[in-house]
Amino acid sequence: MNELVRSTASELAALIHSGEVSSAEVTRMHLERIAAVDPEIHAFLHVAGDAALSTAAEVDAALAAGEQPRSPLAGVPLALKDVFTTVDMPTTCGSKILDGWQPPYDATVTARLRAAGVVILGKTNMDEFAMGSSTEHSAFGPTRNPWDTRRVPGGSGGGSAASLAAFEAPLAMGTDTGGSIRQPAALTGTVGVKPTYGGVSRYGLVACASSLDQAGPCARTVLDAALLHEVLAGHDPLDSTSIDEPVPAVVDAVRRGAQGDLRGLRVGMVKEFAGDGYQPGVQGAYRAALDQLSALGAELVEVSCPHFDYALAAYYLILPSEVSSNLARFDGMRYGLRVDNGAATAEEVMAATREAGFGAEAKRRIMLGTYALSSGYYEAYYGQAQKVRTLISRDFTAAFTKADVLVSPTAPTTAFPIGEKVDDPLAMYLNDLCTIPANMAGNTAMSVPAGLAEEDGLPVGLQIMAPALGEAVMYRVAAAFEAARDAAEGGPLFRRVPGLEVPA
């Protein structure tokens, strides 16, 4: 196994751009790694080896000709969540209803990665249409957590997070509707960022819940996430919700934060995200993280966001309602799966296709959403949930008058065993307890590794939340915390993944 597999994206970029190693060598190394461990991990649904090597060769040729790198990440491999459209690879969204579908266009995220010279290794596994917290709701089988392959890697973006933790890719892309980037990051000991809503284009991102979905970077370090963030972010006229504002200078913020001085910054501890319901090891790691932030000079203040207690209930009315609308397009008439079974009418074809093509969780949320939007119930359910959403946003506004960032555990528990919660929807939904409010309000949030839980030795995540377009201060705090934690623990958490024959 090549030792370079354990390098960060920024380290690989420096080696590639200096000519010490080629992008083709780095890409081939990761493809070999995927071949060796992915039969067990199942992070990928599609591996695009030939296309990846072709992109790498183009980057190498341009560098050899004396051209400047197309971006700071040119030549570095990346794993792409299978919810972004790609003209040269299938896009399934983890669903049988799109099995084998080849899109006619690239998502803006895909196009920006290609323009930056990033090497796309393939498409990663996910809960069907990004609905789930464990990647067990994929129609193509679950992904396993590299820390313990009997456990889940989180969801919906478990494939992207697991590819990082298993050293199959140094970078990955995810989407976050209620925690689908941050919760898998916490459970796999990696870094995941939900940008401000509208900060990264949603064009070509197959919609789950349009007012909540947000694409964002997944990485093993805060710097790598920031480098990818700057490649992805920026206004896109193809997305009507895209913010036409300058991209926050997150890479500069990381370099400032890495100096380890948070004096003058106020860190708000969310009162509602502590106490009962949290695994003791998660609580312990969170308290240690607070001590670390205080030691860096940050002022810790307690803030109360009382309507966060209603976020989960409101979210599971708003999201299914939007799912009901968005997934209506998958009807067997235009693209994807078609099942007719001798059907005599278009309606019968649609019914047979949707019955065969959608999994249990997708059907559950479609039915919940259709009910919440139905005549006589709209105002009682969907309308009331939107009012709660406004109150959550006001809670954030008030909290940010007292603190520059807010912190909490990312998830209430560490990775749980495969099969433990898959038949208990409420227990599964509770995994997103801490992450949902940021999606409801549209502000930015991220998860960074906070150490290992004492009772099971599995990763715990620290969630850092900031106001809309407040990515710079969020990344600064994350970088300072990461540097202090790595110094205290003798190195990055991701280098401690057990098993899988990872080089020491």
Topology:
Layout: H1 9-18, H2 23-41, E1 44-47, H3 49-64, E2 77-81, H4 108-115, E3 119-124, H5 158-165, E4 171-175, H6 182-188, E5 191-194, E6 215-219, H7 222-232, H8 250-257, E7 266-270, H9 280-295, E8 299-303, H10 311-326, H11 346-357, H12 360-372, H13 379-399, E9 405-409, H14 425-429, H15 436-441, E10 444-452, E11 459-466, H16 471-489
Q: Separation of termini?
A: 10 Å
Tell me the helix content: 25-40%
What's the helix-strand series?
Answer: HHEHEHEHEHEEHHEHEHHHHEHHEEH
Shape call? globular
Q: How many helical elements?
A: 16
CATH architecture descriptor text: Alpha-Beta Complex
CATH superfamily: Amidase signature (AS) domain
The number of strands is: 11
Rounded average pLDDT: 96
Largest sheet: 11 strands, mixed
Q: How much of the polypeptide forms β-strand, as a percent range? A: 5-15%
Using only C-alpha atoms, the radius of gyration works out to: 21 Å
CATH class: Alpha Beta
The total domain count is 1
Folded structure, characterized:
This protein has 504 residues and is an alpha/beta fold. It has a single domain (3-308, 389-491), classed as Amidase signature (AS) domain (Amidase signature (AS) enzymes). It has helices spanning 9-18, 23-41, 49-64, 108-115, 158-165, 182-188, 222-232, 250-257, 280-295, 311-326, 346-357, 360-372, 379-399, 425-429, 436-441, 471-489; strands spanning 44-47, 77-81, 119-124, 171-175, 191-194, 215-219, 266-270, 299-303, 405-409, 444-452, 459-466. An 11-stranded mixed beta sheet has the order 1-3-2-4-6-5-10-11-9-7-8, with helices on both faces. Strand 2 (77-81), helix 4 (108-115) and strand 3 form a beta-alpha-beta unit. Helix 7 (222-232) runs antiparallel to helix 8. The model has no long low-confidence stretch (mean pLDDT 96).
